[in-house]
Amino acid sequence: MSNMKLPLGQAVVGSAKLAEPTIEQRIRALDERLYEMEIRFRRATIEQSRAKSKKVSRIPEDALLVGKTRGQMYILRPTPEGFRVGDQIYKSLSAAAEAVSGVRRSGWTFWKLPDGRTAKEAFGKK
Q: In terms of pTM, does the model score above 0.85?
């Protein structure tokens, strides 16, 4: 990869025109820029996924949450891997709520502590 900067259009300095780059030179310059942008995008994507994986749940692991739907009661326990309901682990409260109820819904309001407070009331952002 060269550090040579080529104008993509026709540049004018004073009254003298600079030599216009050939099509091949312009394509090469664009390819280099595209390659650099791809590398930056990949780095940003990797950093973003690392930040997400380090995300810590606001719900303590010793918490016990209950959800009721269609006459059934389900128990949810937070784990380092996600949220366990029975032998299944879900990445979010909402995914667990949807799995047990069959309907998309907010897991923060579906799951409750035994005292009746929702997960949102007990552990939501303050």
A: no
